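pinned: reference chain
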Amino acid sequence: MRTAININELVDIRDVQVDRTQSQPERINEFRQQIKDPHLYRCGGIKINAKFATNGKSIEDCLRSSVT
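pinned: its structure tokens
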């Protein structure tokens, strides 16, 4: 059973700050610790729930097609 999540309980990605002087693995770890769930967070008042199709277009392809 899914429970409703209050948007104010989600981490706002705008508040996540990563030290760019760290190595890539350290930056990734720091990001994961701060964001808590990289598939469910918010940006201001917008809830972001990232889902990916197993055999759909890549995010790069989607972004390219939205620009042209």
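why pinned: The chain has a mean pLDDT of 88. The helical segments are 24-35, 59-67.
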